[in-house]
Structures are given as C-alpha cells and as structure tokens.
Amino acid sequence: MRPVFQVATDRDSAPWWERTGRGEFAVQRCDACGRARFPARAFCPACRTERWHWEAAEPEGTVESWIVNHQAFGAGDGEPYVVVMVRPAAVPDCLLHGGWRAAREPVGGERVRGVFTPGASGLTLVDWEPAGE
Amino acid sequence: MAKRLLDFRDRTAVAGVGYTPFTKDSGVSTLTLACRAVLAALDDAGLGPGDVDGLATHRVGDSAAPTLVGPALGIRDLSWHLDQFGGGSVSHAVVGQAALAVAAGVAETVVCYRAINARSEFRMGGTGRGLPASPEVQYQAPYGLFAPPQQYAMYARAHMLKYGTTAEHFGRQAVTQRANAVKNPRALMRAPITLDDYLASRWIAEPFRLLDCCLETDGACALVVTTAERARDLRRPAVLVSAAAWGGGESHLSGGPADPTTTAAAALAPRLYGRAGLGPRDVDVAQLYDCFTYSVIVQLEDYGFCPKGEGGPYAASGATALDGELPVNTHGGFLSEGYVHGMNHVAEAVSQLRGDAGDRQVPGAEVALSTAQPGYVLPATSALILRKD
C-alpha cells in the first residue's frame, strides 16, 4: 500500500480539492482565451489573464507512464504499489499522477477513468482504473 | 536574444579543486565538510583563505551557508556571496554565477562548494525525509510519489514506451561507469559489475533497480574560480570557463509541452554551445548528471550527441566508455564515485582538462561538458563548457 503523507493545500488549490471532495473532476478554464489548465493557478499561461471559471470535466485520460514502487521511502507497509502518470483528456498539455486501481499493471497509452478515493489530510484523491473494464 | 553585455568566454578559470573523502557517514557537520573542501581547493590552487573574496553554494536546507563558512575560516569580508536555493539542477549555475561575478569584477577569487551528509543526515534519495515545501507536492505525495528515484523512474518508463529504450541500455551505462570508478581512488564503489549484476539488483521503483540509482554520499567538493590571468600565475594549469548557461523549458504542468521524455537541457543546449562557439562534436569528455542511469541517456540526446530516442542504444554501444567516442562520467559519476550533488562533475571535468586524471585520463582532452540535473517536476537546469588553456 502507498504510504500516508499529510500534505498542505494552498489558496490556489483549495477549490480543486473542494470539488474532488464532492466527486467532481474540474478544470480551470480561462475566461479570455478559453484554455483549460492544471494545476490551479491564478494566471492563464497562454494569455496571462487573471479571470477564470471552474468547469466540470469527465475524469478521463490515457496512461503516459507508471512506476511500481518497492522502496519504503515513507511510512507504509512496504508492499509494492503502482503510481500512474496520466494525460487528462480535458487538459492534454499537462500530466497528472494518481494511484492505480486494477489487479494488473497499466499498459502504455491505455484509456483510463478517474476513481475518487478518500486519502490523507482529509483530501479526496483521484486514482485511475482501466476505462470500460 | 539578450544583448551581449559582458565579454565572458574564456575570461575566467577554475584554478583549484578540493574534496573531502566520500563516505556513508562522515561523522562531522556539513560546516566542517565545507571548510575542509574549501581549504583543500585553495591549497590545490596555491592560495589561502586570505585570498578569498567570494563564496558560493547551493543547498536545500541541508548544509552550511557561505555566510557561516566565511567567518568559520576567518574570512572577514566577502565582497560577493551566493546561497542559491536548489538541488542538482542549480549545481552548475553556482559555478557559472561565480564566473560571472569574477568576470564582472565584483569578486576576484570565489570558492564554490557543496557539502552534504546525504546518507547519514539528510537522505538525498528521500527515504525517511519530510516532503519538500512546494505546491506541486500536494498533487503527488498523497499517491505515494515524491522521491527523486520515483520521479525519474516515471520519466524513464515514458522513454521506454516511446522509443523502445530497455533495461539493458540503462544497465550498460551503469557497467561502463563502474569500470571508470575502478580506476578512481576517490570512488566509493570500486568493485566491477556486469550486466547480470545490474539486472539482479533489487527493485527500487520499477523500472529502476538499485544500480540505476546514484549513491547517497557524505562529502564535500569545492572549486576555486578566478580570472584567467590570475589562474595562469597559480600552481595548477588553468581550466577556462568557456560558457555557462541557465535555463529550462519542459514541465508536466499545463503551459509546457508536457513531454516527459525531453528535459530542460534540450532548450539550454543551443544557448550553451553558442556561447562557447562550439558544438557537441567538439566535446572530448562529458560529465552528464547521473542521479540515475536514465538521466545520462536522455541528456545524450538533449545535448545533441545522438538523435532523439537513440540515447539508450548509443550508451549501450560503448560510445560512452573511456575508450569510446564520448567518454562520459569518467570518475564513475554519481552512480559509482559518489554524489556531491553536481560539484564533483565539474571537478572531474577540470581534472581531465588538466591531464591529471591518472588511469582514467582521456588522452588529449581539450573541451569538457559538465551538466546539472536536467529538470524534473519543474523545468530548470544549468551547464558549463570548460576548455584547456
């Protein structure tokens, strides 16, 4: 199992975590140029506008990479666990990470779907499972 | 394009290098390690603390600041100092900034150092250590992802998926570097290894095995940077700083190309070569930041030594061995000499260009590339081109 790390959210990220807590996968969209971005920040990296809105998106993406962790870097039971790197369909110019929720290992490029999971620090995490299995 | 304000190329030089022994438990403070390495580097140059008017380091809350090391050595007035926050990605930036300060005339003799107890106190690999204070951490650590070997393993697998890079490619580079360390009396790991040894080493974070990872090391390394003119009057042959570059470009955060198989070095390399008036084919020896085997593979590509995607086969071909077309990490690198977070790469480059690298000397080496951690999570890196006088 993955170790339990207590992390601090911040003033930029709080709205993202509030939404995952409601089972919502949301992205920030720029009010001026319409570009979606992740993670949460005040300025659009494309047009530098400081106005945005949150928009619910399907928690879908493709597997870009993954690791099978063996070393006990933090407190945990030392059992191997998988972390995936996902390219989200809603924001394809970023990569995000999550736990892997399947008995088999991921396959490069496979389609995955987000799974909302209670985690440390009272946060609701987004893990990933194979789409359509 | 920035306006050229300062005549920099070959105007400064590294006049001395110094080390403490590399161990797993130094038994002393990082302040003591820093002082020992600084004094050793000054002695190598034929100088003393009274000649020093600048000190520079980088650290991540794990070591002694220049404003502590200076007074500890009785240096009463530092006319220039740099306490750069950051890890391996800024290691070469520290030396570059020292050279800039000397070229600009705000200091004449700067000692750059890095002093760490990266095994016995602050474990560089992340084991048992607290999380870094960075906003990105909240999107990774709750999933059990934060240690550098995990991060780089993620990029390594992306490279394997996209380009067909294999474990054998990684392993060949590890074996090559160990063979170099066998010839280096300073190296922590001097027993030869085979590809089978590599493949049999335990998993850390798949696709990385133990022998993909650098050595958590206690130790310090220091370099004396001064003007080229002054260096020519000192004890050792001057090694010229031909170019320094800073930069970054790739990120996995929105706003970057989000290509996990390319590093910030790809954006920096043309700037670095341009400043030196050289290209990759002019490089005789390269010290490429090897926190992990894969970081060597990707930099072989991003610094232009082979086409994108072919770093694995290039390394496995023997090209990076001491007798290959591009000897890489001739001291054994962080994988086998020890990991002083970047500074020992610069010191080895200096040694090769002075021609005093002993059994591991690359004959006729005149131009060396030395590089910092090529960037992960957030894009930043730095690098130097050094030249024989």
UniProtKB/TrEMBL annotation, chain A:
Domain ChsH2 C-terminal OB-fold: 54-116
Secretion signal span: none
Tree of life domain: Bacteria
Domain named ChsH2 rubredoxin-like zinc ribbon: residues: 17-50
Cross-referenced PANTHER family: BLR3430 PROTEIN
UniProt protein name: OB-fold domain-containing protein
TrEMBL record, chain B:
GO molecular function, one term: acyltransferase activity, transferring groups other than amino-acyl groups
Domain Thiolase C-terminal: 258-386
Keyword annotations from UniProtKB, A to Z: Transferase
InterPro entries in the cross-refs: Thiolase (IPR002155), Thiolase-like (IPR016039), Thiolase_C_2 (IPR055140)
Pfam families named among the record's database cross-references: Thiolase_C_1 (PF22691)
Name of this chain's protein: Acetyl-CoA acetyltransferase
Species whose genome carries this gene: Nonomuraea rhodomycinica
